């Protein structure tokens, strides 16, 4: 399963054009396929969803040539559709299924519409009822009126229908069915929804009549092919708009994006939250799709209230609004958004669960949520729940986490935004240009918050050395201790020894009680002999066995236990009671000896670290272990704010140790008269 690993970034900077609008791409293919004469569609979104629509119309006998991934030549040479040989696959797309059902309902042939697991759970009753009233023979084969949909040949007639819930998909389904019905179809909307279908109908020569809240379409009119350019998708741009607005110091420009007023509700919400957004409409061409560019500057946002009336114009943007509400000061309430529960996922449930994992206080409501913003964002591992917008919204929030986060199951992002991760990298990397070397990686080595300053200095001088796996910290810490003539303590050895014993005894690490009782019954001895830490468990001194693949694979899980860490803390501190020492690990400068003035954070490019570990002939999943060490709740791996950061990628061990000695001298460490490196 594909996942994103998100590196924190201070801000978003740069200029992009987002891919074509998903809603409009579907509709452009559908209407061009019904039209007489050729249409060239440019800016088409070649996402999984839209490609399903393209394949469906090819299967219905329409000539669709893909000139390049975003340019299509479409012509229905026979001015009719043909029976498809097999079921039409709508993939993950509710838009496709509901709209194409409107087109197929009035055809003189049978058809069947199927979808993926997620689409197969989505309600179709809302189109079945009005279509049946128009004379369609349509049946949902799934439970509770869910897909697949089976359609039999039928002749439709116009009806008057008042939508119980504002829905652009239901409205569009009925407009397309009305096009193939006898007489007039009158559709009344409770509140305005996105109007792409109406605009495209006008583009192809059929003008629905607007009478207040009602739309009227005359059956039997034919569409005329005409070239069409799809604007950039506002809902894709929304991730950058919201992300940049909420990250102080950001400045991004988005070109060629659709600015249809029925889609841009997000802008109003962000402006209310204090965002700085400049909009310039480049093309308002009458009844076509308006497009233009947006300039967003980042700042501190404040919470807001989003009401039922606003929902239809920002429904797809609610996940990202929930994400950035976490960064705003104060509370944000989202109400009247129960529709979110029947999208590609239950977006209320999924966002609430993910926000909680990021450490955001959030209350779930039947029709929305209350997000309490302004708290620190914790690095987290979350799931997309198979929903593209959840995946992207969480990616934006992860940029502001205190470490590297992981979003699992992100294959779904391709349904609307192929290339999202590339754009994320492009816009967030610009933010870390000032970091030397491997930019994106360095950006997550952010200083931990400053300690209160009240921590006690250890009784004897302690040099704290922290860093990720295979960064070389043991090697340099050992050499430094030798040069200083003081004790060297490898705290990781203690975690490894405990892990080895647990693995050796076959303890199930997932069962907390077994884990705790096994640790309690262990006889753990830590002694410094000949200036080096020695660990014994149940009377046996541990050796090379603690570096076995089984221990490497389990040690980060074991050391993530807050209970165990609390238990070991006094043991580590006691070692410094009567001697000076160099102690290395993952939390020495931040949790074990936060009061020491002598702190180092040793790091190296992940590729270099990988190579170093391979050279040692050890099997170790460095990336996985790093992630676990950084994302755990208790004492995660961080570079202390007052630590000296050393990138050892292009330094020899001697160079690193000399650099450390120099820093110790500057900080007043009691150096022996002659400290040499050997
Ligand atoms: N500056 C350096 N240049 C080249 N190789 C180095 C450097 N520092 C360390 N190494 C080598 O890299 C390997 C890994 O180093 P070391 O075991 O000290 O890393 P570590 O950070 O303590 O790893 P872990 O925490 O996983 O035990 C060793 O073989 C070591 O000799
Ligand atoms: N202070 C420490 C030291 C070590 N750990 C954990 C994290 C590591 O994955 C594991 C083994 O350490 P290593 O021998 O690789 O340095 O022990 C920790 O959490 N805190």
TrEMBL record:
Residues at which ATP binds: 467-475
Recorded metabolic or biological pathway in which this protein acts: Metabolic intermediate biosynthesis; chorismate biosynthesis; chorismate from D-erythrose 4-phosphate and phosphoenolpyruvate: step 6/7
GO CC terms, sorted: cytoplasm
Coiled coil: none
GO MF, one example: 3-phosphoshikimate 1-carboxyvinyltransferase activity
Domain Enolpyruvate transferase, first and last residues per copy: 9-424
Keyword Kinase: yes
Catalytic residues, chain numbering: 316 (proton acceptor)
Localization per Swiss-Prot or TrEMBL: Cytoplasm
Alphabetic keyword roster: Amino-acid biosynthesis, Aromatic amino acid biosynthesis, ATP-binding, Cytoplasm, Kinase, Nucleotide-binding, Transferase
Known EC number: 2.5.1.19, 2.7.4.25
CDD domains: CMPK, EPSP_synthase
Cytidylate kinase domain mapped to chain residues: 463-665
Catalysed reactions, semicolon-separated: dCMP + ATP = dCDP + ADP; CMP + ATP = CDP + ADP; 3-phosphoshikimate + phosphoenolpyruvate = 5-O-(1-carboxyvinyl)-3-phosphoshikimate + phosphate
A Gene Ontology BP annotation from the UniProt entry: amino acid biosynthetic process
Region feature (Disordered): 446-468
Pfam families noted in UniProt: Cytidylate_kin, EPSP_synthase
Keyword Transferase: yes
Binding site for 3-phosphoshikimate: 22-23, 27, 167, 169, 316, 343
Functional summary from the UniProt entry: Catalyzes the transfer of the enolpyruvyl moiety of phosphoenolpyruvate (PEP) to the 5-hydroxyl of shikimate-3-phosphate (S3P) to produce enolpyruvyl shikimate-3-phosphate and inorganic phosphate.
Subunit structure: Monomer.
Family: Belongs to the EPSP synthase family. Belongs to the cytidylate kinase family. Type 1 subfamily.
Name under which the protein is recorded: Multifunctional fusion protein
Organism, scientific name: Methylacidimicrobium cyclopophantes
Gene that produces this protein: aroA
